[in-house]
Amino acid sequence: MADYDYDLFVIGAGSGGVRAARMAAGLGVRVAIAEHRYLGGTCVNVGCVPKKLFVYASHFREDFLAAEGFGWAVKNPQFHWTRLLAQKDQEIARLQGIYRGLLRDSGVKIIEGQARLPDAHHVCVGEQKYRCERILIATGGWPSIPDFPGKEHVVSSNEIFTLDKLPERILIVGGGYIAVEFAGIMHGLGVETTLCYRGDKLLRGFDEDVRDFIAQEMHKKGINILFNTQIKAIEKTGNSLIALTEQDSRLETGLVLYATGRTPNTAGLDLEVLGVELDAKGAIKVNGNYQTNIPSIYALGDVTGRFNLTPVATAEAMALVNGLYSDHHAPVDYDNIPTAVFSQPCVSTVGLTETEAKKRYHDIDIYKSVFKPMKHTLSGLGEKTLMKMIVRRSNDRVLGVHMVGADAGEIIQGMAVAIRAGATKAIFDSTIGIHPTSAEEFVTMQKPVDK
Q1: Superfamily name with CATH number, domain 339-443
Q2: What percent of the chain has pLDDT over 70?
Q3: Strands (DSSP E) along 239-316, which ranges?
Q4: Residue 329: its pLDDT value, please?
Q5: Can you give the residue ranges of every domain in the chain?
Q6: Bridge pairing between strands 128-137 and 297-299
Q7: For residues 104-123, average pLDDT
């Protein structure tokens, strides 16, 4: 033990890295953590937290419109982008301080700077070299923008949080959750928004009904969606940008946001030199215990390219630390992980899609409901809600629950507990609903839509 400076050296102070460092230190392990950007990682600084704050901000536009239907006269509301940025920055600074305090109070040594691995038991940060029994890589992901003429004129989801001013028009390239979320945000903040995607449906991997429904609702709100459209070049002309498509159309805009995916953030670590195995996409390969092909080096979270979700990274951190330093090892169960897309309206889901369920089982029933929420009977807005449940007929087990609508993330969190507990359709049917809510629809869907 005396041969090492630290028992565990964590690289990356995002959600997974911080949880692992704190837990290990709490068990008496000598821990250091290195971070060269910001405490809290992507989620706190350029991901979940500021994005959700922006979603809240952007939704007031519709709330003001809806208010008149409920007797309120809201005259000339004004939005100030710089005020939102200042409030966002203040909240992030507060959270960074909390992360720093949690690490410090746990006894974790915080080292600021870029870490690299010269060998299996050493970490270099600047001119300092630390000898470590184990090394954990939790460096997350980074926005990926393909190479094409004019790439220098675009921004990623990192820069979108620090724009000096909002453009009058924006072109968002991509069809995943980041693209869909920022389309709702920008449109809600009054920016003329076009979403451009090379595929024929948004949100690949989600249930097909969900994919169709969210596109319809976004279009109804006024977001222009261009499917089967690929950008081949971007030109700058004065204060405008011209995006040239492979179909030879020209899209003029004030800002181009590329939300075309994220890649594992392994730059600067010297993993290739050390011989840490990576997959074809650059993610670190690990076994079931988050161990790489080099026994003293571990990795978890987005850098492993498996489930890129903050709660998954923290769950993996707890499983790793318990497995290494305690007698309470409990592996992460990756089945039925709930997720949400904070689009407008919100998408949330848990369990199997209809396509996945029908590939596994021959006896599937589908329950589905599309309706206008009670709020919009007076709001004057046309937004609708989709709810869908997938059930295996032979054992009545609920295999998947999907929702597009207000508060979907809040509602599906509860559905996830039910599915993990093995709830049947009969249990849903026998549960008394909370009236009047949208959520009660999940316990009142009586007849399957098809066999």
Answers
A1: FAD/NAD-linked reductase, C-terminal dimerisation domain (3.30.390.30)
A2: 99
A3: 240-245, 250-253, 255-258, 262-264, 297-299
A4: 83
A5: 6-141+263-325, 151-260, 339-443
A6: parallel
A7: 97
Separation CA 108–CA 110 (nearest Å): 6
| DSSP conformational letter for 434 | P
Token pair of 229, please?
């459209």
The Cα 339–Cα 311 span in angstroms is 10
Q: Residue 28: which of 296, 324, 325 has the closest Cα?
A: 325
**Are 6-141+263-325 and 339-443 equal in CATH topology?**
no
Burial of 276 from C-beta contacts in 10 A (0-12 / 13-18 / 19+) = buried
- The yes/no answer on whether domain 151-260 falls in CATH 2.60.120.10 is no
For this structure, is 36 an active site residue? no
Q: Which of 239, 93, 233, 234 is nearest to 165 (CA)?
A: 239
- Name the catalytic one among 121, 376, 402, 435: 435
Q: How many residues does the chain have?
A: 451
> Beta 240-245 vs 250-253: how paired, if at all?
antiparallel
Mean pLDDT score, 150-166: 97
CA atoms of 291 and 294, how far apart (whole Å): 7
Across 26-49, average pLDDT: 96
For strand 128-137 and strand 6-11, is the pairing parallel, antiparallel, or unpaired?
Answer: parallel
Both tokens of 176, joined, read 């995943």
For 123, the token pair is 């970490």
- Answer yes or no: are the C-beta atoms of 312 and 302 closer than 8 Å: no
Q: pLDDT at position 2, please?
A: 59
**Under CATH, which number does the domain 6-141+263-325 receive?**
3.50.50.60
What CA–CA distance (Å, rounded) separates 417 from 396? 17
Tokens of 102: 């949690």
**Which pTM was predicted?**
0.96
**Rounded Cα distance, 428 and 439, in Å:** 12
User: The tokens of 440 are what?
Assistant: 């009660």
Determine the straight-line distance between the first and last CA of the chain, rounded to whole angstroms.
Answer: 63
d(CA 2, CA 360): 53
**3-state helix, strand and coil shares in percent for the chain, rounded to the nearest 5:** 35, 25, 40
Report, as an integer, the average pLDDT of 113-138.
97
Q: Is 37 helix (H, G, I), strand (E, B) or coil?
A: coil
CA dist 306 and 371 (Å) reads 35
